[in-house]
Structures are given as C-alpha cells and as structure tokens.
Design a protein that fits this description.
The protein is an alpha/beta fold. It is built from seven helices and five strands. The chain has one domain: HUPs (Rossmann fold). The protein has a five-stranded parallel beta sheet, with helices on both faces. The longest helix is centred in the middle third of the chain and has 16 residues.
C-alpha cells in the first residue's frame, strides 16, 4: 500500500509542482491549505481545490484551515492593509514587506499534527531558497531543524520525513519540472495582488513570468497586460 504524504498546497506554482513530485514518487496525497487573510485568499483557495480535483484527492484528505491569528498579528503587506504592497523588484535585497512573520512555522506545525493523525510518512513543501523573495522561513536549514523538532515532539512511532524537492531550483527549473511531470500549472495562482487577472508586477508574478520565459514556455494563467507573457 502506498505511503501517505501531507503536501502544503498554497495553490501557487511551487506547491503545485511539489504535489506533482510527491505523486510521481508514489505517495498518496493529503493536501493542506491555509487562509491567513492574504489579499488573494479566495483565489488561492480555488487553486487549491482545482489542483486537488486534478489529482482526484478525496475530500477527507483535503484540509483548508484558517490562520486568522496571522491577519490579526499583521506585519505584512499581504495581511495588513496599512502596509503597501510594493511593485515587484527582482533585484531588491533584504526581506520584502510581503513576508508574513513566521508563517511557515504555523503551516508546518499544522502539517505535522495532521500527518500524525493520518499516519502519514512524509511532509512535502514547495519551499524555494535560491530563487525566492528572500523569506527566512523558506530556507533549507529552517526545514531541517523543524523536522528534528517535529520528530522530538510526536509519538515514538511517528517518524516523519520532510521534503522540499524544489529548494535549490530556479523558477525556470521549477517550470520545466512541472511540465515534465504533467503538473496542472494552468490551475495554479501566484499573484499577490489580484484574483481575476494576475497583476504581472508584484514580486511573485515577476518571478513566475521570468521562470516561464527562461524555460521557453508560455504561462497559461491570464494577466492584466498580455505583453507580460
């Protein structure tokens, strides 16, 4: 019987490909999604459900949770309307205002709890270290430390393996891998700002568009400016 993997699925490009990797490696999927008051919350949740439908994941192995506390805490342009979301700048240094403080620790903690209940063997995340926006909670060292903490804090028979199969990939490599695996990239959503047409100007859109261009492929999602494709 195939082992079960909990996949943290935001609905974005990276997590979509991470789910495809887990499926290709023979795992049955349990998909976890978090709403935290982000600007494109409804659109990301739709992407989550669409990707889950594509992989025929049963309803009882789909979990959408609310991290309302992250919206209340604020401190990010994605959750606090008083903080402006800047135009994208792929040459920007430092941690951008779109960083949600310690968000991935909340995601991983929830994934561990659910994995223990389900008897899952692995947790997959779409963390990207080399070609991301510089978020500190996407680093490989952070994930490794969390794996150790998770296995210290769960039942002795719970032995979870954490995988970030894209951690050292560029966005173009992620696009190519997704295409090779037949991942439903058309169903994913990456824009930080808009829910109907991707803005094409935020950091996430710029990274995604550059990745498709460098991969020699056309991004299948709609943008406000057709020339962005």
């Amino acid at each position: 019987m195939p082992e079960l993997a909990v996949v943290s699925l935001s609905g974005g490009l990276d997590s979509c490909v991470a789910a495809a990797v887990a499926k290709t490696e023979g795992y049955e999927l349990a998909l976890l999604h978090a709403d935290y008051g982000q600007l494109t919350e409804a659109r990301e949740r739709q992407a989550f459900q669409d990707i889950a439908d594509f992989y025929a994941v049963p309803v009882h192995r789909r979990l959408a949770i609310s991290f309302e506390n992250l919206r209340k805490i604020g401190g990010s342009a994605l959750t606090d309307s008083s903080i402006a979301l800047p135009e994208g700048d792929l040459d920007r240094t430092g941690i951008p205002s779109s960083y949600v403080p310690f968000r991935n620790a909340h995601l991983l903690s929830t994934a561990v709890s659910w994995a223990e209940v389900l008897g899952a063997a692995a947790i997959f995340v779409g963390f990207v270290e080399e070609d991301s926006s510089g978020y500190p909670d996407c680093r490989e060292s952070f994930l490794q430390s969390f794996e150790q903490t998770a296995n210290l804090g769960t039942r002795p028979e719970t032995r979870l393996r954490f995988f970030a199969p894209l951690i050292h990939s560029s966005k173009s490599q992620i696009v190519r891998r997704g295409l090779e695996l037949g991942a439903p990239l058309r169903l994913s959503w990456s824009c930080y700002r808009n829910e109907e047409l991707a803005c094409g100007t935020c950091d996430s859109c710029l990274l995604r568009l550059r990745g498709f261009k460098q991969a020699g492929a056309v991004d299948p999602i709609p943008y406000t400016h057709e020339q962005m494709n």
